[in-house]
Amino acid sequence: MLTKTLSVSEAAHQLLNDDNANWSYEGAHAIADYLDDMQEDCGGDWSFNVVDVRCEYSELSASDLVDSYKYLLHYRDLPTDGEWAANCDEIMEELHELIMDQTHCFLELENGNFIVGEF
Length: 119
Known about the structure:
This protein has 6 helices and 3 strands. By secondary structure, the protein is mostly helical. Strand 2 (106-108) and strand 3 form a beta hairpin.
């Protein structure tokens, strides 16, 4: 079997070229860095597959994060407008903590988006 070692930039480039995903430039590089660090920590060689990454991780805006995971908050009266909830620091702090308790990967990006490992 032939193998090729990818750099973080090459892996990010492959993610950005995945037509079935919507990675931002920053998100693709962040998840590629994360996977590279994880591979170094665990040792051994891993195969890189954009489909696996797409299925295991998501990049979400703050309002999409709230819409996707608000069920963790158990609020009966949480506003349905994700934009409002995304701008409420108290709700976002609590949601961040709850998500971090559930997943191995939760990254906050400088562009305001989040990378979440599926759980």
